[in-house]
Amino acid sequence: MARSICRVVHAGTGLTGREALRAIIEDPALELVGVAVSSPEKVGADAGDLCGHPRVGVTATDDLGSILALQPDCVCYCATAVRREEQAVDDIARYLRSGIDVVTIATIPLVYPPAAPQAWRNVIEEAARQGNSTFYATGCEPGFVSLNIPTALLTGAGRVDTYRMNLYATRLDEQYPIWDVLHESMGFGKPEGFVPARIAHGKVEADWSAVVHYIANILGVTLDRLEVDWETIATTTDLETAIGVVPADTICAHRWQLAGVVDHSPMIAVQYFAALSSTPWPQHWADPGRLTGGMSFRITGRPSFRADFEFDEPQGDSVNPGVTATAMAAVNAIPSVIAAKPGIIEQPLAGPEIVTRRARI
């Protein structure tokens, strides 16, 4: 039996959204029927022009009514939710109430709904109930890297004493050479005592508690509490970097850890290490091995094992592969979400049903 084509509207044409839009256009199982935008200058633009693809005859609109009138099967919602989280949840709820399924990368805590903010869940659940529609949140990390990969690894586990997911960004000045972001958000070049933005604003807990709770729940572990600890490292000399000279006695690296504590000990943890390429690696930090921008999964117990994951540096492509993978996690899931029963999909989707349909032999 031939697979039916899924009619899809795409919302959001930022960096990741453009990748998702192009993937929808090229996916043989999907038909792009509309594009929702918020920027006036994008209204009327062809979808192909918005993502570096030949024109497809579908034009962008900021009119929600015209989008709803298309009656798509699904909306791929990639609009940013940074500093507009509640608005993004409300946007998604409008689609769900209208009977349209939603796949999104925007609402990060909802990658594992049981650990998401209850207020968000209430809005999404009620909207899905009213519209008899389905909601699914996914992404890269947090997303399939931090949920699906460890699930597969734990298939071969026995006794688990500790679980660690270490994320490494050891050459951020080369991999993301935007001074304003690295200076203001990461704190590079700031004096000692500066608190990185994701720590100061609670973003670590907001984005990553879902991952810690997910691992605890699939292992059947009851956590006593979550704990965050962090530190910054200052350079003792001026450092030559891809973003200029970082002065002596200013921050050149930082680390944070979000841990699920059991019996006063951190049993399940996500830890992030960020450093400039010329930073001497602190001896008390977990060794990244060959990783420069990837993740290391470490399980101690019986058996104990480690698995490293890293995206290859793009060759002749200006888009970070992690951005593309984030988009693909959403696009690949669309047919399975449409086929799922109404409501919130509580667990990360996995299996051959959500593997890319664009493989080239």
Task: Kindly describe this structure.
With 361 residues, this protein is α/β, with parallel strands linked by helices. It has two domains: 6-141 and 320-354, NAD(P)-binding Rossmann-like Domain (Rossmann fold, 3-Layer(aba) Sandwich), CATH 3.40.50.720; 157-302, no CATH class. The chain is built from eleven helices and 15 strands. Strands 3-2-1-4-5-6-15 form a seven-stranded parallel β-sheet, with helices on both faces. A hairpin with a 2-residue loop joins β13 and β14 (305-310). α1 packs across α11 (321-339). The mean pLDDT is 92.
Concise structural overview:
The chain is an alpha/beta fold and 361 residues long. Helices cover 31% and strands 26% of the residues. The chain has 2 domains: 6-141 and 320-354, NAD(P)-binding Rossmann-like Domain (Rossmann fold, 3-Layer(aba) Sandwich); 157-302, no CATH class.
What features would you highlight for this structure?
361 residues, alpha/beta, Rossmann fold, 2 domains, 7-stranded parallel beta sheet, 11 helices, 26% strand, globular
What is this structure's SSE topology?
Blueprint: E1 6-11, H1 15-26, E2 30-36, H2 47-51, E3 60-61, H3 64-69, E4 74-77, H4 85-97, E5 101-104, H5 118-131, E6 134-137, H6 144-154, E7 159-169, H7 172-175, H8 179-186, H9 197-200, H10 203-219, E8 225-234, E9 239-241, E10 244-246, E11 251-262, E12 265-275, E13 294-302, E14 305-310, H11 321-339, E15 343-344
Parallel strand pairs: 1-2, 1-4, 2-3, 4-5, 5-6, 6-15, 7-12
Antiparallel strand pairs: 7-13, 8-11, 9-10, 11-12, 13-14
